Amino acid sequence: MFDRQGSIGRRMWPKSITRESLDPWYDRVAEALPITRGGWDDVTYAGGVFAAACHHAGRTANPVAAAIDTDLCTNCNWMMSGCRFDAKRSLLLNYLPAAVDHGAQIRPLHEVQRIERSADGDFLVHYTVVDPVDYRVRVDAGAIEAKIVVVAAGAAATPVILQRSEQTLGAMPYAVGRYFSGNGERLNTAILDEDRVRDVLGLDRGDGLAYAANQIGRGPSAASWDRLDGSLPEFSRYSLEQLYFPPGFGTILAQAPGAEGPSWFGVEKKEILRRWQSWLTIFIMSEDDNEGVFGPPPSTGNADRISMQMLSRGNLRYEPSANTKHGWALADADIRDILERDGLSRVMPWTNEVIGAYTVHPLASCRMGDDPRTSALDETNELRDHPGIFVTDGSAVPGALTVNPAFTIAAIAERAVPNIVRAAQARGVDVRYLGWLPPAARVSREAPVTSSAGGVPVTVRSV
Amino acid sequence: MDDFEGLSADQVMTLEAYADTIIPGERRGPTDRAVAGAADGGGAVASGAVELMLSPEGGLAGVLDSLAEGLNEHARDYAARTGLDPDPAVPPFVALEFADRVALAQELLGPGHPEQDLWVALAMFSTMAWDTGAHMHTVDAMAAGHPGLTAMGFMPPDPDGVWRFPRFSYGRALAALHPRTTPRGDPQ
């Protein structure tokens, strides 16, 4: 993946980054979170059906490595917005408490709007504070002085902050807000025939059911990597992963196979929803063409908020290219071949007609690289032409990875830290790179949040 | 039809008819005009679609009256160009037969329609009412026999309101591993 060229005709990644050079940083992240290798006992019914179907079709399948404390996990499948059991080994249990113990202040609900230079050459980071319930309501505003700024607002927000800062910081590199990648992501829903699951795959839960377990699990637990082959042409490589989204987000775009009327709403959609427990969601992570471009920034935040928290509308445009669509078509056909074989299920991709393309792993909108024309950051993660500003989130990753990008994003961030420390030292900050890893916590801490009711601090659970 | 503060009876009927087009359900009684009765069991309306549309968290409450008026405007236009003679006793969208409601919804929800975003948002709320009961805590929705969650076979929580599935795995190897799996269990 690190040798990808995309459509720019040269290596997208900085030449100093290879799998070998990044491996020590992957090791640090795996230890810090910690990530553990999954075994078949960790694979949920949904992952098991997918693995068995892969095997039946002559493919391989693997339990996926994950940072989950399986002793605490209840397989409730509500993991998308956190974990009330602290089983999901998120940053709440490692990097964040370690940072707090080293003096870091965490300011929940503070939304950075823009960065400017102070009179003495440092930075002023301007923020607003949003209401804990209604994010559309601004309850406070302020600015923080800094000698170094590390932007990690995510690939959907980092470029927007930088765009908005142009007025005071000066022009941004061309690649800020361009080359956005959706990690080539796409979803298919298979509606399994329970009898065929039993007869063809020989699966039985032991309670009289073959599957009927869409609700049970912990997100992805099994994946197939047969198309992750570096000798294959670019835009034809992808991984397939069993995945789960709760109803709502996980159902709205699913289409009824063979629908004569509308496929994503209406009578036929309701019929497939009645079989929801027999659904199996398959996630494609492929190589897209970095075709996303951000328009002008909205007045605040990275999008105009419609709902208090859930819905908003941003200025990102993403028209999938022929290259991207080619990979999706190959992967769709592969999924059908695996999961429609011998009548196991009927499969349909999620519709792109309702909200356009979609992704859960946005990347590359402020990317690293060696070429100033096509990258916003140099190989140290520093923003070109704006020394002292570093970007360490998914926006720094140059392009689609064909796998879940979280591990690579974290490894790139770990790799950037010595560079950030050196930049801080050069500005007279008394700081050293020690290379300590955060100790693991079992229980997340509570975070102080200022409520909108008279500015009285209240404490809310931080997940 | 239920009473909803801030919306006229015609507006509620119109929004209900749209929600019923997205996830159809059975009529609530012999005089139900908003729900077309195109499917068995409770649909989006019986699952609380209008309650969800009106929820302050959702952000649509302030524009529901104009969305209802917009639907009726589109329905008037649809009826005129397809030669229909709608019943004046009910709002124009409600007057449409189910198949015509579907055909009009497909136009409004289709790529390229200038108002697609609006109608997709309203459709999302209709869908979510049925398959999440998002205007209620899921525990309460399950206890109340929420039509959508019940029809989907959504499994209930433990008595303390928390979902736990101690049995979750077939517990055996089900495929050959990829030959280039790293010692950490990742793809090479």
Automatic annotation (TrEMBL), chain A:
Residues 18-165 form the Glucose-methanol-choline oxidoreductase N-terminal domain. InterPro entries: Cholesterol_Oxidase (IPR052542), FAD/NAD-bd_sf (IPR036188), GMC_OxRdtase_N (IPR000172), GMC_OxRtase_C (IPR007867). Keywords: Cholesterol metabolism, FAD, Flavoprotein, Isomerase, Lipid metabolism, Oxidoreductase, Steroid metabolism, Sterol metabolism. GO terms for molecular function: cholesterol oxidase activity; flavin adenine dinucleotide binding; steroid Delta-isomerase activity. GO terms for biological process: cholesterol metabolic process. Pathway: Steroid metabolism; cholesterol degradation. Its EC number is 1.1.3.6, 5.3.3.1. It holds the Pfam family GMC_oxred_N. Residues 359-413 form the Glucose-methanol-choline oxidoreductase C-terminal domain. It comes from the Bacteria. Its cofactor is FAD. Belongs to the GMC oxidoreductase family. This is Cholesterol oxidase. It comes from Phytohabitans suffuscus.
TrEMBL record, chain B:
This is Uncharacterized protein. It comes from Phytohabitans suffuscus. The lineage of its organism: Bacteria, Bacillati, Actinomycetota, Actinomycetes, Micromonosporales.
